[in-house]
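Quick one, tokens below. Sequence please?
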């Protein structure tokens, strides 16, 4: 059988140098982060960033997150207010993205930030992402490595399943620890969560001691993670069910749902972190097995369960 995974590379120092070369040659690479895999390119280069939009079939109005190695580089591109600095101290590097006003001196490609005056910034924690950023002289624009509106990839093979040989170089950082995209918090006015993630409003409240707004439905779409047709696995998703439909798969949580053939358990131990980590993997797996629908049992709505339910709601809202 033909090996379709030849574009996956171990993250040793030789391959990190190759990744650097690719970025410097305006290529797009697959990059692991602690949340999901990204499609990474030189954030200063219009040419590089255009390739990301094309590969993902992403609308040009939808800006990309810019990944930095440290606060110093981030400050050159974004205006860092007090709330940001407080959150940065405790939560970075980590699975959180901040919307800040763009520094007028920023050299970030206008295409990457979709011509906006704001910019999404993140300092990832994954060792491979950090090791690459360390040897680069540029920040990385990196959206999740999936075709627009589809499921995010949580391992290197998922990136190949999305893009085949169109991506020539993917660094293998193993399975992502978190498995859901970063929390996005807009700090350009009253702190508002635009996308829920493993860092919750409660976690942020504890640091800022300020009310945190959670934006669910907003008229002007600031963040297409808020678009209804997102995280779509390709077949109908039905939430809060007690059994699957005929020819359907059943995504479950907890001990009482073990056994049956079409049952895909997110966590037999009632562990929400484990469930979050399994969600996209299981949905991809179900997709490959020709089920006609996915029923999902009730998932506890606290902690990272909030982000799980957010993704399921968006996947089910067709
Ligand atoms: O975990 C993650 O954040 C992953 C990894 C690779 O870092 N990246 C990721 O990127 O999820 P993406 O492009 O799939 O989602 C980024 C979201 C999009 O919904 C985009 O609209 C929003 O961030 N965004 C980017 N810039 C923005 C801005 N200036 N204002 C509001 N939303 C913004
Ligand atoms: Mg995405």
């Amino acid at each position: 059988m033909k090996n379709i995974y030849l574009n996956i590379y171990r993250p040793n120092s030789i391959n990190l140098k190759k990744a650097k070369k690719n970025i410097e040659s305006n290529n797009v690479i697959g990059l692991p982060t602690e949340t999901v895999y990204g499609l990474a390119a030189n954030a200063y280069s219009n040419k590089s960033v255009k390739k990301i939009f094309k590969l993902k079939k992403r609308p040009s109005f939808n800006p990309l997150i810019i990944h930095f190695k440290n606060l110093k580089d981030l400050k050159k591109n974004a205006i860092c207010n007090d709330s940001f600095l407080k959150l940065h101290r405790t939560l970075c590097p980590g699975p959180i993205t901040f919307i800040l006003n763009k520094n007028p001196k920023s050299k970030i490609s206008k295409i990457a930030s979709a011509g906006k005056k704001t910019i999404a910034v993140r300092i990832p924690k994954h060792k491979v992402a950090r090791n690459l950023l360390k040897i680069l002289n540029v920040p990385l624009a990196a959206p999740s490595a999936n075709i627009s509106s589809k499921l995010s990839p949580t391992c290197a093979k998922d990136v190949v399943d999305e893009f085949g040989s169109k991506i020539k170089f993917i660094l293998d950082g193993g399975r992502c620890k978190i498995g859901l995209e970063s929390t996005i918090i807009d700090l350009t006015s009253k702190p508002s969560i635009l996308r829920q993630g493993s860092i919750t409003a409660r976690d942020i409240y504890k640091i800022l001691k300020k009310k945190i707004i959670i934006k669910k439905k907003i008229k002007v779409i600031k963040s297409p993670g808020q678009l209804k047709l997102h995280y779509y696995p390709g077949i109908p998703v039905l939430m809060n069910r007690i059994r699957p439909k005929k020819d359907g798969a059943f995504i479950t949580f907890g001990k009482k749902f073990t056994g049956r053939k079409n049952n895909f358990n997110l966590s037999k131990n009632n562990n929400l972190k484990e469930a979050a980590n399994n969600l996209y993997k299981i949905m991809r797996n179900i997709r490959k097995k020709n089920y006609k629908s996915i029923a999902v049992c009730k998932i506890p709505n606290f902690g990272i369960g909030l982000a799980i339910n957010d993704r399921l709601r968006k996947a089910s809202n067709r």
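The chain has a mean pLDDT of 94. The radius of gyration is 19 Å.
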